[in-house]
């Protein structure tokens, strides 16, 4: 059964009203699209979290706005880490027959040969932009790093794009790399037999020189 998220139109757009919506367990949101226009709505928080887990950020599902169903995707979310809650959602009304761009998360799989030998995996890109029909957008881009040795890397052009989507990123952009472990800096060598270097002069030498000068003065008298 296709996912259907229930929503209600928001008529009152004042900031104080948004606080009441959240206090009631709902999330203020908006649905927009070229043909759809722009419509402020509210969705139940628990139902939205369930939909997000089932469909992912790039999944297409239906949203029921007071009885009218529309195909949408989650375009953006605002999250309050202190309160641990989603505070606003942007839904995109998708044209199922037109290609669109979307940012898809990158997930590495496997343990590289280089990491087993002490190297460090560096992931330079955590999202890749892809273009596809809404129904063909992948949930994630899996990057197998098993064969990577120390000093090896994978670029966008090395990844196999799906038959139904293509990458928008620069083909030369590095996605992951295996770098050598950090080397400990060498301590500077210390010559224990070397004489210490004077900065403002040796006090003992100065005193000895002063005494010699006084004796010479008395002999001159």
Automatic annotation (TrEMBL):
GO terms for cellular component: cytosolic large ribosomal subunit. GO terms for biological process: translation. Keywords: Ribonucleoprotein, Ribosomal protein, RNA-binding, rRNA-binding. Residues 100-181 form the Large ribosomal subunit protein bL25 beta domain. Residues 206-221 have a biased composition (Basic and acidic residues). One of its GO terms (molecular function) is structural constituent of ribosome. Residues 181-205 have a biased composition (Acidic residues). Residues 180-221 are annotated as: Disordered. CDD domains: Ribosomal_L25_TL5_CTC. SUPFAM superfamilies: Ribosomal protein L25-like (SSF50715). Belongs to the bacterial ribosomal protein bL25 family. CTC subfamily. This is one of the proteins that binds to the 5S RNA in the ribosome where it forms part of the central protuberance. This is Large ribosomal subunit protein bL25.
């Amino acid at each position: 059964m296709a996912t259907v998220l229930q929503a209600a139109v928001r008529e009152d757009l004042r900031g104080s009203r948004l606080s009441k919506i959240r206090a009631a367990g709902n999330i203020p949101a908006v649905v927009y699209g070229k043909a759809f226009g722009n419509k402020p709505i509210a969705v139940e928080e628990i139902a939205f979290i369930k939909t997000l887990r089932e469909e992912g950020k790039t999944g297409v599902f239906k949203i029921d706005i007071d009885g009218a169903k529309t195909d949408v995707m989650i375009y953006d979310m605002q999250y309050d880490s202190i309160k641990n809650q989603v505070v606003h959602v942007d839904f995109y009304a998708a044209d199922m027959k037109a290609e669109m761009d979307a940012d898809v998360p990158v997930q590495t799989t496997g343990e590289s040969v280089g990491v087993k030998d002490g190297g460090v995996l560096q992931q330079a890109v955590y999202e890749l932009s892809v273009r596809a029909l809404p129904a063909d957008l992948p949930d994630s881009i899996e990057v197998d790093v098993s064969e990577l040795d120390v000093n090896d890397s994978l670029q966008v052009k090395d990844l196999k794009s799906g038959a139904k989507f293509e990458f928008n990123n620069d083909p030369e952009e590095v996605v992951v790399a295996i770098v050598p472990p950090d080397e400990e800096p060498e301590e500077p060598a210390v010559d224990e037999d070397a004489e210490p270097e004077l900065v403002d002069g040796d006090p003992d030498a100065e005193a000895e020189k002063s005494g010699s000068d006084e004796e010479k003065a008395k002999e001159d008298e």
